[in-house]
Amino acid sequence: MIPIYKSDVVIVGAGLAGLAAARELSRAGKNVTVLTKLHPLRSHSGAAQGGINAALADDDDVELHMFDTVKGSDYLADQDAVELMCSRAPETIRWIERMGAVFSRREDGRIAQRPFGGQSKPRACFAKDRTGLTLLQTIYEQCVREDILMLDEWYVSDILYENGKAYGVVAFNIRDLSFAIFNAKAVMFATGGYARAFKINSNAHANTGDGLSIFARKGLPLEDMEFVQFHPTGLAGSGILMSEAARGEGGRLINGLGERFMEKYAPEKMELAPRDVVSRAIMKEIIEGRGAKEDPFAVYLDLTHLGEKKIQERLPELRDLALTFLGRDMVKEPILISATAHYSMGGIPVDTNGHVKKSTDELTEGLYAAGECACVSVHGANRLGANSLLEALFFGRWVGNKIAEDLKDITFKDAKTSDAEMAIREVDFLLKNNGDERTSKIREELQELMTTKVGVFRDEKNLLAAKEKIKELRNRYKNIKLDDKSKSYNTDLQEAIELGHMLDYALFITAGAVERKESRGAHYREDYPKRDDENFLKHTFGYLENDDIKIEYAPVKITKFEPQERKY
Ligand SMILES: Cc1cc2nc3c(=O)[nH]c(=O)nc-3n(C[C@H](O)[C@H](O)[C@H](O)COP(=O)(O)OP(=O)(O)OC[C@H]3O[C@@H](n4cnc5c(N)ncnc54)[C@H](O)[C@@H]3O)c2cc1C
After folding, report:
1. Would you tell me which CATH number, out of the four given (3.50.50.60, 3.30.300.30, 3.30.160.20, 2.30.40.10), belongs to the domain 4-227+343-414?
2. In testing the pocket of ligand 1, which one of 53, 315, 389 has its CB within 8 Å of the most ligand atoms?
3. Tele-8alpha-FAD histidine occurs at which residues (predicted)?
């Protein structure tokens, strides 16, 4: 018999967004259960290095932060959401600081702020280069203090959703594959990003976009999926992130000819142009044969002029990572970097209160999302560095409070044990199927395809070929066979389920990219190199239908800043 556990709210995901919401709900006296496939402190938020934005300095202001964000987004961000987030950013920093987050300080004792790409002021508050970990530990401690039920190593594989209303999730315990239904008035997803579909990426193994695909399989839309951010500075070969903080602290990009090549691409902002601009510049240098001498598929990131004291004080983690994974000490020599898939601007469409949309103009009931898995859209076509920790922390908290208010109007719908049938069937199928395909083989082919054909530079021919190939891989997936049939910590099984999700959302990314015949932010089409506001100043809504993606569009909310040409 499948147990059915009841609570007011179930939150899927224990990163910054999920835990911030859980803390607020608990403080509001609500009974909340957090489910997470990892221990909360292993959530990807803990890997964030560089900083979190807020207009705190005397010479900065909220309107400037908003403008930088909207310009950075290539005017695709919804400006009401941007205004909400930027105007609450200073208070969000004070909130987390009061709970114990220790930020790096200036000489005069105020919170230190470093420059980040595309920002007109140094605006990223930081804790050395371990900002995400500091924030995550702080909010986790608060959740422990609240005595919130956090169930880790529980894998959520389905959502209870009928006639526009959500009433729980189905999950299995990774330790022994036992299933349970978590029945609730409200369900919030905070399942993080999805860059693992790319071969070269900066993300943790867990970032497989589970939440998105679980929604898509229920016929719910996904928004702006074609906008995947490629971070300019991943370690050569592995893609492990060298945070933008390295350039914020003064790091220079140099090609194989010894040229500081950003002079050609963004003469004013140089290395601190937004990520889409810098990534394209790096890839162009590499493609045109000006890569590093020791590795033509990389360029140099030079920090040697900063000196050991500053590097140790501000970037100790990056130094360790480069030493461990590249064998280079950034104090003594330039390191080798290249663009790496990093962040998901698109995701589950939500309004500014976190309500999930079931179409371009209708909301679901009792269903919420926040953090990187959601698309509210504060990042539009390109996210500015240090705006994402802000999004996760601010919207996590905000949506938590909204759910607490909404609960009085939501009726409890009882779950039945039969609601778990689909999730159980999926696991049974994977354990029993006796085909001749392997998870790792299909995953490698998918990742290679996404990096080479749906990467920094895109065109019709490659995108269409990629779409066909993804469909082929989805068919081959039906013929999968697992070696491990056991019930205890079966990572073979979990990886197969996650691959199913990756294949789903890869189709959304590619289909959206095929249809968007313009270049905007991170989506660059060599066959349509210009932004086309007349035809494409709009959000993409994709729906999974008959093994393909149906596309609709929705208008962008423009309040203060009319689209302009974007120059840096
Ligand atoms: C290397 C790196 C550095 C970064 N640095 C910065 C930075 O300096 N500044 C900045 O603003 N942004 C940065 N970012 C981005 C930022 O860290 C993330 O966008 C943000 O932390 C996401 O938080 P989240 O709460 O949405 O998701 P996450 O922290 O990723 O949490 C996702 C949660 O969902 C759970 N989950 C997922 N699927 C399931 C499932 N099926 N069942 C149960 N649980 C599930 C996971 O266990 C996890 O608890 C960085 C990103 C990377 C990759």
Report:
1. 3.50.50.60
2. 389
3. 44
419-529 is classed CATH 3.90.550.10? no
* Residue 42, marked binder: yes
Q: What pTM does this model have?
A: 0.97
Find out whether 519 is annotated in a ligand binding site.
no
Strands of 136-261 (E only): list them: 149-152, 154-162, 165-173, 179-189, 222-223, 228-235, 252-254
| Ligand 1 centre distance from Cα of residue 519 (Å) | 27
d(CA 323, CA 295): 17
275 given a catalytic annotation: yes
- Residue 200 Cα distances to 255, 451, 540, angstroms: 20, 7, 25
The string of pLDDT tens digits covering residues 164-194 is 999 999 999 999 999 999 999 999 999 999 9
Percent of the chain with pLDDT over 70: 100
Distance, CA of 450 to CA of 510 (rounded, Å): 9
Q: Which two tokens stand for residue 164?
A: 């526009």
Q: How many other C-beta atoms are found inside a 10 Å radius of the C-beta of residue 173?
A: 14
Tokens read off for 182: 């978590």
